[in-house]
Amino acid sequence: MWRLKVSEGGGPWLRSVNNFLGRAVWEFDPDYGTPEERAEVERVRREFTDRRFEKKESQDLLMRMQIYDLKIKKFSWTQYLDYNYENNKSNYSIHRKILTMDYYLLQYAKVKHLQVDLPAIKLADSAQVTEETLLTSLRRCLSQHSALQAHDGHWAGDFSGILFIMPILNIDMRFVAIFTTIRHAKFDSSYLLPIVFILNVHYCLMNEDGGWGTQVLGPSTMFGSCLNYVTLRLLGEVENDALTKGRAWILLRGSATAIPQWGKIWLSVVGLYEWSGNNSIIPELWLVPHFLPIHPGRFWCFCRLVYMPMSYLYGKKFVGPITPTIVAIREELYSVSYSEIDWNKARDTCAKEDLRYPRSLLQNVIWTCLNKFVEPVLNCWPINKLRDTALKNLMKHIHYEDESTKYIGVCPINKALDMICCWSEDPNSDALKLHLPRIYDYLWLAEDGMKAQVYDGCQSWELAFIVQAYCSTDLVNEFGPTLRKAHEFIKSSQVLENHPNSEAYYRHRSKGSWTLSTADNGWSVSDCTAEALKVKTSYF
Which segments constitute the Squalene cyclase N-terminal domain (predicted)? Predict the structure, then answer.
């Protein structure tokens, strides 16, 4: 059974500036949980799957099941359901999931000595709202919310929703042979179970039309559909109804040649698309003088740090191992034979489902110049010697980014790309070994399966707003322990040092700031700093 570990770490390949405060990762423990609890996990997973087209968002039930001590129960889960069935026969089936949540909150609240006997208040349309009614409802709300606080002071939870992040992490894991090992460990359920949970989320989040969206609630796109289809195939899935529908969706809308730029790059890396079908992302751009406005050091950090490893991989024309599975997928993603695809035409092809805004005339001129003139010249001798220098410079920047974020990265996209760059540089490097355990910082488990988060959490950001909300109720004294733990978390999550030689790597001052997530992330955010500082100075 999976366990949520909060503020824990250790081992030779994990580093932290504050003892992993705020880190929330799921870890498989074969001895954890009773048979009844494991059966309940399977039940909520099954119910989500059955209703996945009606409600695509999970309710974080697996996390809520684990926030209290399993050994401290006044009565069992089965008894609780039986009690509610006798008292709520008319709407029992509708509210079963709500009962699940209430039960676990109730037990945890009792353990933590929180007030749990407050009556639920339902007002008729004509009823008068009194101060007592409001305070009772507010106390009930805050009591339940307090029960969800982790022992380190923050509120752990799901921060996913983007459907291309898990596929790119799976591609990373393919390169380091994690899933190859898992697939061959057939007799060890502790290895097979992660595959089951990862597969489950890809199937659960498939749209009724057979495609996948770029985000959970979005319509199907070529980007989401191709990457999720490829992920299922790389994980060993073979022809089934879901894959057949997914492939039909892709082929009906122009095949994988119509995937947008980021998708073209990822498919090129894995060996399912040719680099000649990509627009040029020249690494030499990083060697131009910094005073020029086109220097990437002047770009927004997310843009710069995502395109930096993309530029490295493009410059190397890196392609992973071509296995029989890759060869088979090549024939599945395209409407013509892979060898007959016109990559020059594919370069500028994008499905209408993915096209948010057509390229301007200026953009077309720039891309044409880069593809037709600049890139060919840069590959001619002796100018091609410059590319080696550019690639070494990029790798230096990539290592700096990894080390300054304790191998978390500014987001999962640049982390996944940086990992592949480290693998291409040296598959046995310490950098790659330091990357691996931090993959779990981006994984989250819920009833819909194992999914990838859009960041390593939003611990500091959310906590600042939560504290302000509590303090605005004038019930601070009643929730003192909760707020004191929150204050300690904010205090200990402040970034205390500037990154060394930061100006050479286009970083600003970070000392004294707060990040969106944890201090280990290292990327200061102005509004997170403002809200955290407001809480630290105004409310305590």
Answer: 207-412
441 tagged catalytic:
no
Sorted by sequence, the CB contacts under 8 Å of residue 320 that are 6+ apart come out as: 171, 174, 175, 269, 270, 271, 326
Contact criterion met (CB below 8 Å) for 4 and 441: no
**Pick the catalytic residue: 69, 342, 430, 527?**
527
Quick one: what percent of the chain has pLDDT higher than 70?
Answer: 85
Q: Which tokens belong to 298?
A: 């002047």
CA 400 and chain centroid, separation: 22
Residues whose CB is less than 8 angstroms from the CB of residue 149 and which lie 6 or more positions away in sequence, other chains included: 155, 482, 485, 486
Question: How confident is residue 117, by pLDDT bands cut at 50, 70 and 90?
Answer: low
CATH 1.50.10.20 fits 165-452, yes or no: yes
Q: Above 60 in pLDDT, residue 367? A: yes
Domain-wise residue ranges, the chain: 165-452, 458-540
pTM exceeding 0.90 = no
